[in-house]
Write a sequence for this structure.
């Protein structure tokens, strides 16, 4: 398991706990508990985004260093600064301070710059948590009849007693928080007012939404940081190009015989499979809006193409400059997909 995967998995386990706790508190109509849980979710997500951004920068600098780049890493403080006091959450890929210190010496950035990255990621996490706190429960109520009925009191109109309605509300919240179906929903009189399948749908929707929001933002932090580092002359000289990497399995959009086909869709949406291997400068990636994720739950990433690799692919002229004509020939079919507006996914916005 590589570094970013460890960060991702440890983070989503802890972030997911607080995400579900926040939604459960909203279902129970306990605003103070919900606010507290959303704050914890933002803390964990902010830490994960910080580590992801540093990991993305480290990848770019490692590629440049392997080609001969040499620099002295700027000094970081020896002791843990007050700003990195132990968080109230239990998240750790270290502890957090130990994890972030692993990047010392791997990215030639000052502690002031690293601290700025952390503040930016914390603010982003707070915005995400606020948006989810406002929209997630609203979307669930709009799409799922059982949740809407219990929070609007419709069950009582249909014959349920106040006690039964309250019990249903509690069971739905418990299911969201624990990701399991309470035994009381499998037996007893409540089945007259709510189906087990409805609650299973609520639990599944919660998990899917959490995964989508989390994956999209963690991937964005990692890839944006990679592109940002490669935009600088200290890296671009040694690793002048970026390669788009799209995972090839049945879950990838555009995969021949993939899950979209097996679901009997009228077509196989997306062209992520076909875009794997696209190469361009960091500037061109940014200008065309190609920095992954390029669709919901997109698992794409960018990796550096070193100068030596670019030479071996004949993408560099004899004078050392980039051969734009050769790059255009290499990207021809993939560029057509971009120009037709098929990639990134139409309508997707980070």
């Amino acid at each position: 398991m590589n570094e970013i995967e460890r960060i991702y998995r440890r983070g989503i386990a802890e972030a997911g706990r607080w995400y579900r706790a926040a939604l459960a508190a909203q279902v129970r109509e306990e605003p103070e508990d919900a606010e507290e849980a959303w704050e914890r979710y933002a803390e964990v997500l902010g830490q994960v985004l910080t580590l992801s951004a540093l990991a993305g920068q480290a990848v770019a600098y490692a590629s440049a260093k392997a080609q001969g780049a040499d620099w002295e890493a700027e000094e970081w403080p020896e002791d843990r600064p007050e700003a990195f006091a132990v968080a109230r959450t239990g998240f750790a890929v270290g502890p957090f301070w130990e994890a972030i210190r692993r990047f010392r010496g791997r990215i030639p950035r000052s502690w002031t710059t690293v601290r700025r990255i952390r503040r930016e990621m914390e603010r982003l996490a707070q915005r995400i948590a606020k948006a989810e706190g406002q929209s997630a429960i609203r979307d669930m109520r709009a799409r799922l009849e059982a949740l809407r009925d219990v929070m609007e009191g419709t069950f009582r109109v249909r014959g349920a007693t106040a006690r039964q309605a309250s019990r249903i509300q509690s069971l739905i919240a418990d299911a969201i928080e624990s990701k399991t179906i309470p035994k009381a929903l499998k037996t007893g009189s409540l089945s007259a007012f709510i189906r087990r399948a409805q609650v299973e749908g609520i639990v599944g929707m919660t998990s899917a939404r959490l995964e989508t929001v989390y994956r999209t933002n963690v991937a964005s932090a990692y890839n944006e940081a990679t592109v940002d580092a490669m935009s600088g002359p200290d890296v671009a000289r040694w690793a002048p190009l970026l390669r788009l990497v799209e995972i090839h399995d049945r879950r990838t959009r555009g995969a021949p015989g993939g899950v979209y086909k097996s679901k009997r869709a009228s077509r196989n949406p997306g062209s992520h499979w076909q875009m794997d291997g696209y190469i361009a400068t960091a500037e061109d990636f940014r200008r065309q809006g190609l920095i992954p994720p390029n669709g919901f739950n997109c698992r794409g990433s960018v990796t550096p193409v070193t100068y030596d690799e670019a030479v071996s692919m004949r993408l560099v002229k004899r004078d050392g400059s980039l051969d734009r004509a050769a790059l255009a020939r290499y990207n021809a079919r993939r560029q057509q997909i971009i120009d037709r507006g098929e990639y990134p996914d139409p309508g997707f916005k980070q």
